[in-house]
Amino acid sequence: KRPAGAPDKGLARPVTKVGIVGAGLMASQMALLFARQLKVPVVLTDIDQARVDKGVSYVHAEIDKLAAKGRLSADGANRLKALVGGSLDKAAFADADFVIEAVFEEMKVKQQVFAEVEAHVSETCVLATNTSSLSITEMAFRLKHPERVVGFHFFNPVAVMPLLEIVRAERTDDATLATAFSVGKSLKKSCVLVKDAPAFVVNRLLTRFMGEIIRAVDEGTPFEVADKATEDLGLPMSPLVLLQLVGPAVALHVAETMHRAFPDRFPVSDNMKRFVEAGKTAVWTWDAAGNQTVD
Ligand code: CAA
Fold this sequence. Notes:
The protein contains eleven helices and ten strands. It is an alpha/beta fold and about 300 residues long. The strands form two sheets. It has an eight-stranded mixed sheet, sandwiched between helices. It has a two-stranded antiparallel sheet with strand order 9-10. This is 3-hydroxyacyl-CoA dehydrogenase. In the central section; belongs to the 3-hydroxyacyl-CoA dehydrogenase family.
């Protein structure tokens, strides 16, 4: 059955090569998924060789884990590894049909990335963004071909979470959207078409939910108590672990986007800001008197 709002699948264009801008954790997880499910070459790029190498090594190590679990034969693992490469030069995207960015969650950075990519790809190459909360319409604004821009939002861990939010921006055309749905289906994801609104659908809910837990902590509930109480409600993962999985900096960016859009409903915790600014990886601690501090 065609997902609600998806255009006729006959409009979808074939995808024979994928480019990924960014080689961080989310991007590397995406590279593995694209190569494994679409069986096409995937190229990761980043700002320096060390990052590119780290991304490719991550994918190769994950492929080894799949082989060790018996999910891939030795030959299959080698074939899959050969599909995933890295390059510092976006000219490597020249024959790509689908390029997705997963770089720093900053509008100007993403606009610049798309402008650079556009200089190297064909007129019909889809430019997808894995942004968690930013406006896709604004991201596409100054491009020569804004109609080929689409939101393609994965959830962490990419290999496991079934949901994919596909976002239609103001100028996205039907062929781009149909291609996005076709790729999402090949990736075996559950695709939903969502509006280009701040944080789309799911991160709105998650931000509110995490924000209220953080607020309870700011108001004096020990994090441990808030964390355990919400985990024992039956969630798949404790909020503290989820925050670390998503990355506190990403979670803060989403919270700030939501705050700009709906200041009354989405306050931003000062503790959370200080925590991210300090580059911390553990969340709150509290002293002997039970006062919360950002460690
Ligand atoms: N990468 C790859 N695979 C992973 C993984 C990871 N980081 N973590 C777990 N898995 C795989 C395991 O290998 C295992 O696979 P197999 O069954 O094939 O062996 C499977 O997932 C289940 O793992 P576990 O049994 O170890 O653990 P679990 O049953 O506790 O499930 C979980 C792990 C799926 C991550 C679960 O805890 C969960 O659903 N957590 C919530 C995650 C969530 O809410 N994500 C959304 C975050 S928001 C976001 O990402 C959007 C944004 O824009 C910020």
